[in-house]
């Protein structure tokens, strides 16, 4: 099951427009609340110059990039935790993703309705966060009540679990996210993880600015960046409308369009890279007669499990991973040159794959 980023925010902040630009899936986007009901899903390539440079050094006929999975989730409104708007459906969809891209409206446009009347990033962020916390508080309360009932039978673990959940309740009630909860032990951490709390997901803020505010943003974007810094989160400036126009251009026109906005690269490139990092993913590379490819694995993945991403037989019959760094491979120019220079390492089943490894897996089934 691939790791996914859910795109969330209030209605009419540009979520679906941004999703369309990301995936070119042409999800419905319109100027009225709840245009998105069922989540739209898209698979987006991760820009990586290392793959381009590696491909140029190989004889492969094609290059295949790593990808990030995005889900466009319906807009949330105040009271969602009590079932307002698409309430429970919206919150249920968040449970199914691994990280959140929170789109915050940072543009003024009288032609696009704002559900609360005017642009105010702090208020908008507070609404979304409050609804997530209220739902999490309800989940924690139910978990604590269940554990307390079991503790009445003399179950010591249930008693400890109830105490943990009561501390969690107080934490959430103080307006703090589940991400910031300090579990006292690995066991408590597992108990909290099993609750699948909405505010436990890592968050990336996407400040959606007007095209005229590129490349630096503006006063609204500055407020989002400040909030993100206070939370230890990242913030990316992007103009969904600009990116949607850019996505429909051919490569030559795209470069000219970027230059008019003072940009070297699309804002979506930064967004996708930031989402990739938010999910805790890294890239390793393979090359052969069919393709040069970037593969995605969670940070901390060992070599046999990385091999399993290519084929289950690779993991089942894993012998070793012949590995070098991508920059070394590109500098030397070929696998033969890497071997001749003594730059190829032979790694066993306990090897933890590093970002940028070029790997040849040896296996026997």
How would you explain this protein's 3D organization?
This protein is an alpha/beta fold. It contains 14 helices and 12 strands. The chain has helices spanning 15-23, 49-57, 87-95, 121-151, 156-173, 186-194, 219-231, 240-247, 251-260, 267-278, 303-310, 312-316, 326-332, 335-340; strands at residues 4-8, 40-45, 63-64, 67-72, 99-105, 203-208, 234-238, 281-287, 292-298, 318-325, 345-347, 357-363. The strands form 3 sheets. A 6-stranded mixed sheet has the order 2-4-1-5-6-7, with helices on both faces. A 3-stranded mixed sheet has the order 3-9-8. Strand 8 (281-287) and strand 9 (292-298) form a beta hairpin. Helix 1 packs parallel to helix 8, helix 2 packs parallel to helix 13 (326-332) and helix 4 runs antiparallel to helix 5 (156-173). The longest helix has 31 residues, at 121-151. Mean pLDDT is 88; it is low at 25-38.
Concise summary:
This protein has 365 residues and is α/β, with parallel strands linked by helices. The chain has helices at 15-23, 49-57, 87-95, 121-151, 156-173, 186-194, 219-231, 240-247, 251-260, 267-278, 303-310, 312-316, 326-332, 335-340; strands at 4-8, 40-45, 63-64, 67-72, 99-105, 203-208, 234-238, 281-287, 292-298, 318-325, 345-347, 357-363.
Rg from Cα: 23 Å
How far from one another are the termini? 25 Å
What is the strand arrangement across the widest sheet? 2-4-1-5-6-7
Query: Which stretches are low in confidence, meaning pLDDT under 50 for 5 or more residues running?
Result: 25-38
Q: Strand tally, please?
A: 12
**Percent of residues in beta strands:** 15-25%
Looking at how many chains there are and whether they match, the oligomeric state comes to single chain
Q: Look at the structure and give the mean pLDDT.
A: 88
Helix content: 40-55%
Q: What coarse outline follows from CA principal-axis ratios?
A: flat
List SSEs in N-to-C order: EHEHEEHEHHHEHEHHHEEHHEHHEE
**Total number of helical segments?**
14
The class by helix and strand makeup works out as: alpha/beta
The profile of the biggest β sheet is: 6 strands, mixed
């Amino acid at each position: 099951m691939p790791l996914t980023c859910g795109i969330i925010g209030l209605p009419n902040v540009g979520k679906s427009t941004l999703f369309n630009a990301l995936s070119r899936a042409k999800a419905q986007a319109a100027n009225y609340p709840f245009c998105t009901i069922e989540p739209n899903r898209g698979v987006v390539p991760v820009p990586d110059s290392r793959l381009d440079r590696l491909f140029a050094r190989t004889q492969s006929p094609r290059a295949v990039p790593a990808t990030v999975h995005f889900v466009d989730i319906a807009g949330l409104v105040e009271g969602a935790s009590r079932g307002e708007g698409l309430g429970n459906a919206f919150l249920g969809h968040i449970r199914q993703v691994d990280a959140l891209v929170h789109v915050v409206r940072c543009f003024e446009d009288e032609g696009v309705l704002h559900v609360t009347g005017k642009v105010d990033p702090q208020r908008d962020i507070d609404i979304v966060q409050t609804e997530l916390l209220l739902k999490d508080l309800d989940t924690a309360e139910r978990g604590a009540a269940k554990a307390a009932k079991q503790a009445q039978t003399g179950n010591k673990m249930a008693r400890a679990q109830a105490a943990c959940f009561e501390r969690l309740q107080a934490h959430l009630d103080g307006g703090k996210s589940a991400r910031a909860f300090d579990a006292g032990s690995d066991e408590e951490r597992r108990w909290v993880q099993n609750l699948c709390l909405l505010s436990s997901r890592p968050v990336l803020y996407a400040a959606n600015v007007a095209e005229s505010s590129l490349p630096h943003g503006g006063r609204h974007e500055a407020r989002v960046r400040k909030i993100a810094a206070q939370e230890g989160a990242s913030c990316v400036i992007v103009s969904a409308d600009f990116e949607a126009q850019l996505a429909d251009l051919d490569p030559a026109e795209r470069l000219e369009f970027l230059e008019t906005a003072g940009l070297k690269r699309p804002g979506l490139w930064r967004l996708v890279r930031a989402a990739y990092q938010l999910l805790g993913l890294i890239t390793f590379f393979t090359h052969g007669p069919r393709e040069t490819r970037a593969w995605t694995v969670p940070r901390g993945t060992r070599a046999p499990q990385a091999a399993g991403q290519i084929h289950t037989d690779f993991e089942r019959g894993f012998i070793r991973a012949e590995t070098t760094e991508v920059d070394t491979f590109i500098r030397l120019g070929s696998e033969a040159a890497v071997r001749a220079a003594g730059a190829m390492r032979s790694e066993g089943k306990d090897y933890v794959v590093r970002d940028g490894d070029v790997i040849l897996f040896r296996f026997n089934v």
